[in-house]
């Protein structure tokens, strides 16, 4: 009953009461109650109208938010039927609304991934039975009519406890994100393959193989004026690869591609191939195709060209693809440049080593001849003043021989020509042997050698080479220690390492000099008795040849501590006992 009808009915009842016989007060009381009841009904009706208006406003806002949301939403029933969807979902799915609402979502999924949708709905049913949960599944949509584009989406569903409400699902387009991930993976694989390449042909083939893995149908790369003649590589169908190789080697690429190559100095260029050019590249009847060329800036005379092509029905290149191909070309150019610089460095090192060998041989022979002459002169009857000069000549000849030996040691150890002869050795015994052999030299300088060893501490090392390390470190410490002081030699076990230290009580090393103490030919400016600066560099090379590390610690005015650490091993006796125990256990079993 409407409000107007209600009012008419109340007025009729009031008139009827007034016409009825009886007490006028009773009739008036009943009429007042009717009027009061009318007011209450009118108030309730007003509240209902306001509630209805709020509900309609809320529904309008919900519809505006739901259908105008930038994220695609839909509601699915337990069987995957689309109950409702918003405008963003209609645009994403690429079909008219009448072909979506009331139709199964599985029809829009790529055939190979439809099972994923059933699995998604089953998880929604299982998790939504007790509490609200989010279920996420990624799958591939089938191309829309008149389109070859495939979209990868994520279904994010809130599994509701009441199956009658359906499953409220967001459909997120992750196609671009997955494509970007694929491009990054391709760049990483290309970098890995370039790292494994040992020469320019290998680098060219690596780039071509990386490009056709996920982006293009055909790829070719070549060097402009490379060392040793034309160099090129291609990847793709065998017939296309053979055609491109011959054209690159003979420098007979079609004029259109040559013209495109001239346009790529400022960045990658893309071109739709004519039917004739497509037929030349791919063969057949000249199906539509797109080609792109990229070239990095020439470095040291090296220019790299990268050609990539796709053939219909695949789509052309996106802007991101152009950047990726330019990155591939850049990395190829850097790799080729690095290879050439590496070869140049090897040639220079070889020249240096040959020169060092020749000069060292001549210097050793000359120093030996000078020393023999000095010895012969010493046997003759010479005045005392002349013998002093003869002794100086002998010392200088021995110094030259020592420097040459150090240079040869560094060169041999760095090149691996002089391998270390490793054996299990007790660290404490090595330290004691070093003290015994160097104690006389320390005594001449008025300095005491002290040692502190650790029991059952073993290393795998070359004993002679480690004694050379101790000799260089101790001699260096004696040079900078004041008379009457002490030089400490210590060894200790620290986890998986055995650490040795030679500690002096000299003036220490300036903080700015610490990074350079192991550099070849380096000497501190405060050194009183300068050498040639090879002793500490030899220490570092020998320690690293053992798989260890060397470093220095120094406090202001508190001397210097030269450390080196080698991998620790178990003592042979303990190893033998353990092996015997294991054999006994095996025998019992």
Provide a short characterization of the protein structure:
With 589 residues, the chain is α+β, with helices and mostly antiparallel strands. It has helices spanning 3-19, 24-68, 87-93, 114-127, 175-196, 200-214, 238-249, 255-262, 275-282, 319-379, 384-415, 427-444, 463-479, 535-545, 572-588, and strands at 72-76, 82-85, 133-140, 152-159, 167-173, 218-224, 232-235, 269-272, 289-294, 303-311, 423-426, 448-452, 458-461, 486-494, 497-503, 549-554, 560-569. A hairpin with a 2-residue loop joins strand 14 (486-494) and strand 15.
- Note the gap between the termini: 98 Å
Write down the overall mean pLDDT: 79
| Number of β-strand runs | 17
Q: What share of residues is helical? A: 40-55%
Q: Estimate the strand proportion.
A: 15-25%
Taking all Cα atoms into account, the compactness measure Rg is: 45 Å
Biggest sheet architecture: 7 strands, mixed
Uncertain runs are none
